[in-house]
Specification:
The strands form three sheets. This protein has a seven-stranded mixed β-sheet with strand order 3-2-4-5-7-6-12, with helices on both faces. A five-stranded mixed β-sheet has the order 9-11-10-13-14, sandwiched between helices. Strands 1-8 form a two-stranded antiparallel sheet. Helix content is 36%, strand content 21%. The relative contact order is 0.12. It has helices at residues 6-20, 42-47, 59-71, 90-97, 100-103, 150-162, 211-223, 242-252, 267-278, 301-307, 311-324; strands at 2-5, 24-27, 52-53, 75-82, 113-118, 143-145, 167-172, 179-182, 195-198, 203-207, 229-233, 236-238, 255-262, 288-292. It folds into two domains: 2-182, Thiamin diphosphate (ThDP)-binding fold, Pyr/PP domains (Rossmann fold, 3-Layer(aba) Sandwich), CATH 3.40.50; 195-324, Rossmann fold (3-Layer(aba) Sandwich), CATH 3.40.50. The longest helix is centred in the N-terminal third of the chain and has 15 residues, at 6-20. It has eleven helices and 14 strands. By secondary structure, the protein is α/β, with parallel strands linked by helices. Helix 1 (6-20) runs parallel beside helix 6 (150-162), helix 3 packs parallel to helix 4 and helix 8 packs across helix 9 (267-278).
Length: 325
């Protein structure tokens, strides 16, 4: 096993998909943001100059082009840049791509993959730090994937670009440079299949995106005190692998859900509600949610850290769940 960064795996997935399928194209010039990882996309432009488009910044316009191209038979990958600006393309995401198949009685599909960089990134403040993907759960017809490792990023992107449905790929800005293990032979990963990143007997922790490595750090610290965490990474939010989550809770009897979306109406709330409805009999203690509070992200780094989940807050939540029952 070798190691690869999330950003490099994303580019590899795009490159391999473009090499194997001439319908795949890229719309948008900030696939990896404005950090040093952006140079990784140079080989995409070199190898596929006629299929990498860097148009003027217009989230709504670029998303609309992607939706139209997908309806015409193409497989576009539309980069929306910072997730906070995806709101400008909300109509194209939720009222066009997500419902195209339904509104045309199955005559048209919109197999477009959208990409956005979400999350607190260090001084991004309220307008460059949002995680709005929980809102997209209210857009039936849209698949949502949130990888946490290089291998998952590669596999889920390959599946997204081959899917007949529109997909939102959610990448955390801080994940781009993190290296994780990848096999020499990378392959597509089916949607709706969670991955148990760590086995444990005491508490089930369900985490998404950047919160997965944070939870692994917390789990290692807790293990020194004899507390064994089972960490479940859904990988795809739509479809959600409810079965794996509930089976894990049936073994541990406790659930902590960790996500960077705000608390109210967030990812953690929906997963908690699902387990409360379908797995209540397994619970020994109340479900605990670890999220950002319902407040804009401050520009100040100390305040930003204060409102963001981290390994210490996650470990404290796990200890609280154990004390509760």
């Amino acid at each position: 096993m070798s190691k690869q960064s999330y950003a490099a795996a994303l580019v590899d997935a795009l490159h391999d998909a473009m090499r194997s399928d001439p319908r795949v194209s890229i719309i948008g010039g900030y696939v990896l943001g404005l950090g040093p990882q952006r140079t990784l996309t140079d080989r995409l432009k070199q190898d596929f100059p006629d299929r990498v488009f860097d148009p003027p910044t217009s989230e709504a316009g670029n998303a609309a082009v992607g939706v139209g191209a997908s309806m015409a038979g193409m497989r576009p990958f539309v980069d929306l840049g910072t997730a906070s600006f995806s709101y400008l393309a909300w109509s194209q995401l939720t009222n066009e791509a997500a419902v195209a198949h339904y509104m045309t009685n199955g005559r048209l599909t919109a197999p477009v993959t959208f990409h956005m960089l979400h999350g607190v990134r260090g001084g991004g403040a309220a307008q460059h730090s949002q995680s709005p993907h929980a809102m997209l759960w209210n857009a039936p017809g849209l698949e949502i994937v949130a990888p946490s490792t290089a291998a998952d990023a590669y596999g889920l992107i390959r599946t997204a670009l081959a899917s007949p449905n529109p997909t939102m790929l959610v990448s955390h800005a801080k994940l781009l440079g993190i290296e994780t293990e990848v096999s020499e032979k990378k392959s597509a990963i089916p949607f709706g299949v969670a991955d148990i990143k760590r086995r444990g007997r005491d508490v089930t922790v369900v985490a998404t995106s950047l919160m997965v490595p944070y939870c692994l750090t917390a789990a290692e610290a807790l293990a020194k005190d004899g507390i064994e965490v089972e960490l479940v990474d859904p990988r795809t939010l739509v479809p959600l692998d409810e079965k794996t989550i509930i089976e894990s809770v049936s073994r541990t009897g406790r659930l902590v859900v960790v996500d960077e979306c705000p608390l109210r109406g967030g990812i953690a709330s929906e997963i908690a509600a699902t387990v409360a409805e379908r797995g209540f009999k397994h619970l020994k203690a109340p479900i605990v949610r670890v999220t950002r509070p319902d407040t804009p992200v401050p520009f100040s780094l100390p305040l930003e850290n204060f409102v963001t989940p981290d390994p210490e807050k996650i470990a404290a939540a796990v200890r609280g769940a154990l004390k509760a029952g």
